[in-house]
Amino acid sequence: MQYLAFILKNKQVIFFTIDGYYGSWIEEEFWRAVINTSIVVFFTVLISLTFGTLGGYALARSTYRYAFWILMAGLIFRAMPHMTLVSGYLQPFFAWNIWGILPTTIIVLVAINQPFTLWMLHSFFLNIPKDLDESAMCDGCNRFQAFRYVIIPIMWPGVITTGLFSFLLAYNDFTVTSMLLSDENETMIPAIASFLGTVQEEGKVMYAVAAVVSATAPLFFLVMFFQRQIVSGLTAGAVKG
Amino acid sequence: MNTKIENKLTPVRIIAFVFVALWLIVAMFPFIWTLWGSFKVQADFFSKADWANAIFGFHTEKQTGNFFYY
């Protein structure tokens, strides 16, 4: 590979090379991990938000006491280390021959993520007055139409904030993806870990460094693009007058 | 719109700016170092002889092939 040299005014030369990027993206096919990550993240966020908004709305409007206990169970489930869940999943997944594929991992990530989305969206829905639902239903909407056309449009900051946290959970996950995905289906974080090598095998550290930069860069743009919604979503309900 | 009093550079504001600037440097340093180092070879990025190699790329010149100036 070629290198690039910049000469400073004091004749000092700075050398750059893209060997790390070429090695990781082309030779080691890191682009496959990027595509796998995109699929896993997209479907995890989509499914989590779909069930999270519906479930969070139902729990926020429910007058039954079991709604509280469902949220408590979700909180306990969320507090458990991921490893304890994954080790339990492994045996049935091997038995049913569904280990190593993306849909299985997506389902597990949704299961792990769902209590968090439920809690977060539930608290957002609590801040929206019930009067809005009732007004919509007086105007002829059924419960779902009131949710879809009246509640969701004013919930966007909350949905985007929750979606972003779901995205980060799926994007940064190592435990679940490294345990449940085969080599050809691995996502970015396990791929970076595999570049680092093991005690027995020397890794390609500069490939890992280039891959780390490649994996981190999209997060900067994502947070910068959605910063307004994130801030408004995180501070919603902080001040009550 | 800010008033003149709000825009005035008080000692507290100066300390706050310095603190935020330092905090940003500390927080951003690992990523900037990794970003810069990702365009170097391993011998530079993990150079024990001279940390400046990670900045200037002394081994990057030697280990990579053809050369072109910018």
Please explain how this structure is put together:
The complex is a heterodimer of chains A (241) and B (70). Chain A is mainly alpha-helical and 241 residues long. Helix content of chain A is 73%, strand content 4%. Chain A has one domain: MetI-like (MetI-like fold), CATH 1.10.3720. Chain A has eleven helices and two strands; from the N terminus they run ββααααααααααα. In chain A, α8 (156-172) packs antiparallel against α11 and α10 (188-195) runs antiparallel to α11. Chain B has one domain. Chain B is built from five helices and one strand. The longest helix of chain B has 27 residues, at 11-37. Chain A binds chain B through residues 1-7, 12-21, 205-206, 209-210, 212-213, 216, and chain B through 31, 34-35, 37-42, 45-46, 55-58, 60-61, 64-70.
What characteristics describe this protein?
A: 241 residues, mainly alpha, MetI-like fold, two-stranded antiparallel sheet, 11 helices, 2 strands, globular, B: 70 residues, 5 helices, 64% helix
How many helices of chain B? The count is: 5
Low-confidence stretches of chain A: none
Largest sheet of chain A: 2 strands, antiparallel
- Secondary-structure element string of chain B: HHHHHE
In round numbers, the mean pLDDT of chain A is 88
Helix residue percentage of chain A: over 70%
Strand runs of chain A, count: 2
Give Rg of chain A in angstroms.
23 Å
How helical, in percent, are the residues of chain B?
55-70%
* Top-tier CATH class of chain A: Mainly Alpha
Q: How would a textbook summarize the main sheet of chain B?
A: none
What class, by secondary structure content of chain A?
Answer: mainly alpha
Number of strands of chain B: 1
Helix/strand class of chain B:
mainly alpha
Instruction: Give the termini distance of chain B in whole angstroms.
Output: 46 Å
Strand content of chain A: under 5%
